[in-house]
Amino acid sequence: MFSIPTFLESLVPLFWAARYTLLISVAGIALGLVIGTLVCAARLSPSRALRRAGAVWVSFLRGVPLLVQLLVFYYSLPLFGLDVPAMVAAIVTVGICASAYISEIWRGAINALPRGQAEAAVAIGMTPQDVWRRIILPQAFTLSLPALINELILLVKASSLVSVVGILEITRASQAQAATTFRPLEVYLAAACIYLVINLCLAALGRYLEHRTAV
Amino acid sequence: MDLLQTYGPALLRGFGVTVLCWALGTLFGMTLGLLIALMRHYGPRWLNWIIQVYIEVIRGTPFLVQLFVLYYGGPLIGLRLDAVPAGLLGLTLYGSPYFAEIFRSGFRAVAPGQIEAARAIGMSEPSIVRRILLPLSLVSALPALVNFSIILTKETVILSIITVPELMYQVSRMSAETFRFVEANLVLALFFWGLVETISRLGRRLETRITKHLLERT
Questions:
Q1: Cα radius of gyration rounded to whole Å, chain B
Q2: At what angle do helices B134-155 and B83-109 cross, to 10 degrees?
Q3: Cβ separation of B72 and A183 shorter than 8 Å?
Q4: With an 8 Å Cβ cutoff, are A160 and B65 in contact?
Q5: Cβ–Cβ of B66/A161 closer than 8 Å?
Q6: What is the pLDDT of residues A92-124, one digit of tens each?
């Protein structure tokens, strides 16, 4: 039967493993923001080739399951003579995957801004750089904050997949724990609880930000 | 070429299992989701509360962990399932809250006047659901339904981790035996890309057809 002590005991090491889950998701979203901004810029650029390349990037990364991306990336690195730790490979893969979604979030937010904002800025004589830097981007960022938090929640869940390349985050740690205790039910439920707590906190943060930035 | 001869049948079988899991998982998930949405719409408050918890739990945890709980934890409480049924049950449970939310917002998009009018002419509640609420909400929910079904095709690869013999599982076995990890996974990636692009094209065609048809009737 379900043993509550086993459940509670497995919470501690899994909680400790959660730091890798958080590291991968947070570093992943940071990298995704950088690449995603570039991709978004490419998709909005006047050059046709750049727009096309951006669209292919987004469609490929959104069309291929993350697990497959992870394995492609993980196994192809040595071909280029790159011997990086599994952790780095995982963060880079998660970041690249997130970049596709983030660029779409950005694009949506930029398109959602009323046209008059940019036109007014041009009318009072701002340079195009200033219009982007001071008018469009700050507003787009506030608009997209809830969606970005949502993306972070998705990444926390997606990071469970990097367990297949051997990183001891929550899922991998729970597998090891289940193998030694022979109590998979309690251990995996404990893992589920930790994920749930992390994501509920993030969701609360998202709601708070949404309220604060609502105009 | 040799590779294809040796592993072709296994890959084909794997593809079959992938399609089967996806189709049934989507169908069951959508059905369960619809039931959940209806229960939230018509059920008592306490039921709504339980459903809310269920939705939060499923949406707040990774699919992989849910599968582990079902497949490896299940036997401890007498739920002994083979990999494929466990995977199907997992997909159904995983998809249901997302589908439920899609249906719920579809219900909300139905103008209240439509329901009131149906009541006023004396239609019974079940037939209002069947003939007014569902058809109208399906139209507005269709893009989201198609979208989430596409997301589910990608989730099926995770079933390989609990040894469901679907496409990814067969590809991993093949690459482990031939040491062609990169090529095998790259081909798999291209395959999924094509699949997802095709399904979303078909989905868009379906959407325009269905909405056009209904627009003409009104």
A1: 21
A2: 140
A3: no
A4: yes
A5: no
A6: 999 999 999 999 999 888 888 888 888 898 889
Task: Write the DSSP string, B120-168.
Answer: HTT--HHHHIIIIIHHHHHHHHHHHHHHHHHHHHHHGGGGGGGT--SHH
Does a structural domain hold residue A183?
no
**Which residues does chain A have within 8 Å of residue B64's beta carbon, measured at their own beta carbons?**
160-161, 163, 171
Alpha-carbon distance of A122 to B176, in angstroms, equals: 59
Continuous H helices in chain A? 4-44, 48-63, 66-76, 86-112, 115-123, 128-130, 137-158, 170-181, 184-213
Q: Are B34 and B103 in contact (CB under 8 A)?
A: yes
A168 phi/psi in degrees, rounded to 5? -80, 60
* Number of domains within chain A: 1
Residue B68 with chain A: CB contacts under 8 Å: 171, 174-175, 178, 184, 188, 191
The whole domain housing A131 covers 21-169
- The nearest CA of chain A is from the CA of B12 a distance in Å of 18
Q: Looking at beta carbons, which residues of chain A come within 8 Å of B160?
A: 67
pTM attached to this predicted model: 0.87
Instruction: Establish if A109 belongs to a structural domain.
Output: yes
Q: Determine whether A173 is exposed, middle or buried from the number of CB atoms within 10 Å of its CB (0-12, 13-18, 19+).
A: buried
Question: In CATH, what class is B7-217?
Answer: mainly alpha
Cα(B168)–Cα(A209) distance, rounded to whole angstroms? 39
pLDDT in tens, B157-212: 999 888 888 888 888 888 888 877 788 888 888 888 988 888 888 888 888 887 77
Q: Chain centroid to CA A81: how far?
A: 27
Q: Is residue A204 part of a domain?
A: no
With H, G, I as helix, E, B as strand and everything else as coil, classify residue A30: helix
pLDDT tens per residue across span A13-50: 888 889 999 999 999 999 999 999 999 989 988 889 99
- The domain ranges of chain B are 7-217
Helix (H/G/I), strand (E/B), else coil: A83: coil
Sign of CA dihedral B153, B155, B160, B165: negative
Closest chain A residue to the Cα of B167, Cα to Cα? A68
Question: Which alpha helices (H) appear in chain B, and where do they start and end?
Answer: 2-42, 45-60, 63-68, 83-109, 112-120, 125-128, 134-155, 167-178, 181-217
